[in-house]
Write a structure and sequence with these properties.
The complex is a heterodimer of chains A (146) and B (119).
Chain A (H helix, E strand, L loop, with lengths): L4 H25 L15 E7 L4 H8 L10 E8 L5 E4 L11 E4 L4 H34 L3
Antiparallel strand pairs in A: 1-2, 3-4
Helix pairs in contact in A: 1-3
Chain B lengths: L5 H25 L9 E2 L2 H10 L12 E2 L13 H32 L7
Antiparallel strand pairs in B: 1-2
Helix pairs in contact in B: 1-3
The chains are: A alpha+beta (146), B mainly alpha (119).
Chain lengths: 146, 119
């Protein structure tokens, strides 16, 4: 366990939340994109998170009597597409409408994205608060030397 | 006879435990959106108390984390972000108290050996 673990852990949370905000922003920006690079409507993207330090090696080391590895924060394992089907919207005048007059729209719900954004921004702020508390603790330690 | 008495060693051990607890609490908050993650924290006061009641030296305590329990959201995540933020603030203030008491006691010792500055 190193001295600045808590700061690094909070930093990993900040990185993950910022990436989630980027992806949410992209989802919102493309909420009406009917033609992606592959000619299909835009598919909503989601960030997959995993906690670091709880992997097999650590669990084994702990079970064999070793000391538990310090928590390593969170990491992004990938950005994956949401498998929800596209929305069909009746709009016979649109250029991409089929014979029945329906247009395939992205599977993005802007209300979901907005609530996600609030959640991400809140978590980001809690991580910042945790980081500044840890920083105060480190500076308290340095005060001991005075 | 050690230069530092049991109280001083206990204070320093509690600081160590508090710092480890801080790492775990920060980790809990960082994983507030990780599916299936369970919160962990270090009950360093409990572990320290148990060690001292058993007559062991406070500096011999090795602190370990224990799960906080409870499921808080549909994806199996057990982190209560508000509770964690409160615990982090509490831990930060506690650490501040510990360092100040430890520093004051060290100052007393410095005064006793004639090295203390003007108060």
């Amino acid at each position: 366990m190193s001295f600045f673990d808590a700061l690094n852990v909070s930093a990993s949370g900040l990185t993950a939340e910022r990436l989630r905000m980027d992806v949410t922003a992209e989802n919102l920006a493309n909420a009406e994109t009917t033609q992606g690079p592959n000619g299909k409507p835009y598919q909503r993207q989601e960030v997959e998170l995993r906690s670091v330090g709880g992997d097999f090696g650590n669990t084994l080391a702990q079970a064999m009597g070793g000391s538990a590895a310090p928590p390593g924060g969170v990491e992004v394992t990938g950005i994956v597409a949401d498998k929800t089907p596209d929305q069909l919207v009746y709009d016979p005048g649109a250029p991409g409408a089929n014979k029945a007059g329906y247009v395939r729209m992205p599977n993005v719900n802007s209300v979901t994205e907005m609530t996600d954004l609030i959640d991400e921004s809140d978590t980001y702020q809690s991580d910042v608060t945790a980081m500044s508390t840890s920083k105060t603790m480190y500076s308290d330690t340095l005060q001991l030397l005075k | 006879m050690s230069l530092l008495d049991t109280t001083q060693l206990a204070l320093e051990s509690a600081m160590r435990g508090s710092m480890i607890d801080q790492t775990y609490l920060a980790n809990d908050l960082a994983n507030a959106d990780t599916p299936g993650f369970q919160a962990q924290a270090v009950n360093f006061q409990g572990e320290l108390q148990a060690a001292m009641q058993a007559g062991r030296s406070p500096s011999s305590v090795s602190f370990s984390a224990s799960p906080e329990g409870g499921v808080n959201s549909a994806d199996g995540n057990g982190v209560n972000a508000e509770q964690m933020s409160a615990q982090i603030s509490e831990n930060g203030l506690l650490y501040q108290d510990l360092t100040q008491v430890a520093a004051a006691r060290e100052q007393i010792m410095l005064t006793a050996i004639g090295q203390g500055g003007a108060a």
